[in-house]
Amino acid sequence: MTALLVVAGAVIGAPLRYLTDRAVQSRHGGPFPWGTFLVNLAGCLVLGALAGAGAALPASLYALLGTGFCGALTTYSTFSFETLRLAEQKAWFYAVLNVVVSVAAGLGAAFVGFATVQAFVAV
Amino acid sequence: MSGDPGAGTTTRRSQLPVVAAVAAGGGLGALARYALIHVWPATPGHFPWATFVTNVLGCLLIGVLMVLITEVRVAHRLVRPFLGVGVLGGFTTFSTYTVEFHGLLTPGSVGVAFAYLGGTLVAAMLAVLAGAALTRRLAR
């Protein structure tokens, strides 16, 4: 049952990542992979918020929205591949920028999501 | 970047199989990730090995796949959406990585948190590089 919820969330999350990436990349033609950056940022914010709810969030909802939706919305493989491609094109600055900014912003978003929801749940 | 001028409806219609392939692949990839964390659950305060292995393996495989379908042979147009964007994108996760790091930032496991943060990053970058380089060498 839980596995089905994970799949259901992922079936929405993965195409949402693809469509967001396409929409973003068609507007920003530069070397920086804004599309992947944005979906990873959004996914970290939402998963941080879900984790911040703690036991107040039913396990089934965490499976659907967290493991399924956020897990599939965000990606490590595309992030690493786009970084490799930038490095292979000798765009070292953008390659390093992508790693630093993605990790820092992703962590920031997860922390903000967690702290915000935790504050509400604690009230 | 996409470069299909004046092909609005046609493009939208031909996008449907691509989006479906991404969704199907994403579901499969996430299911594989779930199976791994199910048999190998993370214990609070300890290194999240299941997510680490998931992300590093996914990065190795995207390196292999992208070289295969862009340099070695011509692939069907749904191969990259299904396997790359879908299966591997759904298998690997960035959100769990950052949230697990946050969860490890408690007295006693701060070292594990930073080992996980840096360890995943280094291993993932080496994996995608190794996947691409080995596939290029073997295909030659």
TrEMBL record, chain A:
It catalyses: fluoride(in) = fluoride(out). It comes from the Bacteria. GO terms for cellular component: plasma membrane. InterPro entries: FluC. It is found in: Cell membrane. Keywords: Cell membrane, Ion channel, Ion transport, Membrane, Metal-binding, Sodium, Transmembrane, Transmembrane helix, Transport. The chain crosses the membrane at residues 32-52, 59-79, 91-117. Fluoride-specific ion channel. Important for reducing fluoride concentration in the cell, thus reducing its toxicity. Belongs to the fluoride channel Fluc/FEX (TC 1.A.43) family. This is Fluoride-specific ion channel FluC. It comes from Amycolatopsis endophytica.
From TrEMBL, chain B:
It is a multi-pass membrane protein. It is found in: Cell membrane. It catalyses: fluoride(in) = fluoride(out). The chain crosses the membrane at residues 16-37, 49-69, 81-99, 111-134. GO terms for biological process: cellular detoxification of fluoride. Na(+) is not transported, but it plays an essential structural role and its presence is essential for fluoride channel function. Its main location: membrane. GO terms for cellular component: plasma membrane. Na(+) binds at G89, T92. GO terms for molecular function: fluoride channel activity; metal ion binding. Keywords: Cell membrane, Ion channel, Ion transport, Membrane, Metal-binding, Sodium, Transmembrane, Transmembrane helix, Transport. Belongs to the fluoride channel Fluc/FEX (TC 1.A.43) family. Fluoride-specific ion channel. Important for reducing fluoride concentration in the cell, thus reducing its toxicity. This is Fluoride-specific ion channel FluC. It comes from Amycolatopsis endophytica.
